[in-house]
Automatic annotation (TrEMBL):
<keyword id="KW-1133">Transmembrane helix</keyword>
<keyword id="KW-0472">Membrane</keyword>
<protein>
    <submittedName>
        <fullName>MATE family efflux transporter</fullName>
    </submittedName>
</protein>
<feature type="transmembrane region" description="Helical">
    <location>
        <begin position="73"/>
        <end position="91"/>
    </location>
</feature>
<keyword id="KW-0813">Transport</keyword>
<keyword id="KW-1003">Cell membrane</keyword>
<feature type="transmembrane region" description="Helical">
    <location>
        <begin position="111"/>
        <end position="128"/>
    </location>
</feature>
<feature type="transmembrane region" description="Helical">
    <location>
        <begin position="20"/>
        <end position="53"/>
    </location>
</feature>
<dbReference type="GO" id="GO:0042910">
    <property type="term" value="F:xenobiotic transmembrane transporter activity"/>
</dbReference>
<feature type="transmembrane region" description="Helical">
    <location>
        <begin position="233"/>
        <end position="253"/>
    </location>
</feature>
<dbReference type="GO" id="GO:0005886">
    <property type="term" value="C:plasma membrane"/>
</dbReference>
<dbReference type="Pfam" id="PF01554">
    <property type="entry name" value="MatE"/>
</dbReference>
<dbReference type="InterPro" id="IPR052031">
    <property type="entry name" value="Membrane_Transporter-Flippase"/>
</dbReference>
<keyword id="KW-0812">Transmembrane</keyword>
<feature type="transmembrane region" description="Helical">
    <location>
        <begin position="366"/>
        <end position="385"/>
    </location>
</feature>
<dbReference type="InterPro" id="IPR048279">
    <property type="entry name" value="MdtK-like"/>
</dbReference>
<dbReference type="GO" id="GO:0015297">
    <property type="term" value="F:antiporter activity"/>
</dbReference>
Length: 432
């Protein structure tokens, strides 16, 4: 639910910007995958915090839970500052690189630059959320996100269209609203961690850089970062393919990508829950129970997200019309994208929860390799061939999604059943 609410930021933006027209939606659609790419570089390190804290929680060592949390916070703080600066100054060349036309270039750059200011707040809340998940406290972050999303519902139209003495900022107004709400959530999260009343207490004196610990964090986190960033980089490259088919296709892709991000969020939620439970049980030496968790997560993700996919298949046109009312070309193309992609959502869920098993076992390289194979060796080549070398055009890009979801699920499930992740975990425990 917390992840769905996080995605609601983008959905709310898309809803209100759709009232400005297809170009406004297209400008944000171009910015979103690149923003996600930069965010992914740091998000993998917060996952490392979840795994390390989960291990210590499973082993019943509260001192190491607090120490690991303090180290995670300070590392992510400096990484977020660096990525914020990179995002702001690279906005214009990045938007040009991925093919922003003159009609949407300024809006896409403005949206990207304002969003970059919020990276510090976004990452500080991400690290709070990840640490809470590591000890099994998932409700508190959800309630904080719920409050900020409700606030964003009010601020979005206020800053996009203006009211009274507040001027309308158009596309960049959506980013301003998000940065304000992200700042509030980050402040609340960090105050809770310093107070130490919710299972984790961070301390200033434990934030002195511990380079052996940071090296361990990077060892776990960099493959996870690369896995997530490879996913968003693939989405960015796909946008570059879509741009050759015009603004209507970009807007249709943007709506389909928003729906995909909404669906991938519960898949990631199951994956994060799986990571937390697997890491805690491995910390407690319960390898068989960790495998039972993986089996159960697989079933929940496959059947649950297949049901969601079939529902979205049936509602594809009204969902698309909700975001861009009155533009029949965008509605037709967006609905077709959703109908082609939606039946494979259960397969996407299987891949994500198995990544959660591998991450929880500390085998983050497996998740990286499966994602790179799926996205770069299957999805992008399929999209290029079907869209550029056949009569399908933009529809060929849509078909690349179910094809890659099917192949990735088969590869991940086969590797999971081979059981190497269990052998490696047992070996590591004996070495410790």
């Amino acid at each position: 639910m917390a992840n769905i609410l996080q995605t609601a930021y983008q959905l709310i933006d898309t809803f209100w910007l759709g009232r400005l027209g297809a170009n406004a939606v297209a400008a944000v659609s171009l910015s979103f995958p690149v923003l996600f790419l930069i965010l992914s570089l740091g998000a993998g390190l917060t996952l490392a915090g979840t795994v390390i804290v989960g291990n210590h929680k499973g082993a019943g060592d509260q001192k190491l839970v607090n120490y690991s949390s303090s180290q995670t916070v300070i590392v992510i703080f400096f990484i977020s500052l660096l990525l914020s600066a990179i995002g702001y100054f690279a906005a214009y060349p990045l938007m040009k690189l991925i093919g922003a036309g003159p009609e949407i270039l300024k809006d896409s750059v403005d949206y990207f630059q304002v969003s970059s200011f919020g990276f510090l707040f976004l990452f500080m809340f991400f690290v709070f959320q990840s640490l809470m998940r590591g000890i099994g406290n998932v409700m508190l972050p959800m309630f904080i996100v719920l409050g900020t999303v409700l606030l964003n519902l009010i601020l979005d139209p206020l800053f996009i269209f203006g009211y009274g003495d507040i001027p309308g900022y158009g596309v960049s107004g959506a980013a301003i609203a998000s940065v304000i709400t992200q700042g509030i959530s980050a402040f609340i999260g960090i105050v809770i961690l310093f107070r130490g009343k919710m299972g984790i207490k961070i301390n200033w004196h434990q934030m002195k850089p511990d380079f052996p610990w940071i090296r361990k964090m990077f060892f776990l986190g960099i493959p996870a970062s690369l896995e997530q960033s490879s996913r968003s980089a693939a989405m960015t490259i796909m946008v570059m393919l879509v741009t050759s088919f015009g603004s209507a296709a970009i807007a249709a892709y943007g709506i389909g990508a928003r729906i995909l991000s909404l669906v991938i969020v519960p898949a990631l939620g199951f994956a994060i829950a799986t990571t937390t439970l697997v890491s805690q049980n491995i910390g407690a030496g319960q390898i068989k129970r960790a495998e039972k968790i993986g089996n159960l997560s697989n079933k929940i993700a496959f059947f649950g997200l297949t049901s969601v996919g079939l529902l979205l298949f049936a509602l594809a046109e009204p969902v698309t019309r909700f975001f861009v009312p009155g533009d029949e070309k965008v509605i037709k193309d967006g609905a077709l994208f959703i109908k082609i992609m939606a039946p494979s959502f259960g397969l996407l869920g299987v891949q994500q929860v198995l990544n959660g098993v591998f991450n929880g076992a500390g085998f983050t390289k497996a998740s990286l390799l499966i994602s790179v194979f799926s996205l770069w060796m299957i999805r992008f080549p399929s999209a290029f061939i079907l869209s550029e070398k056949t009569s399908l055009g933009a529809e060929g890009i849509w078909w690349a999604f179910p094809v890659s979801n099917l192949i990735a699920a088969i590869v991940a499930f086969t590797y999971y059943k081979m059981g190497y992740w269990k052998i490696r975990t047992i070996r590591n425990r004996h070495m410790d």
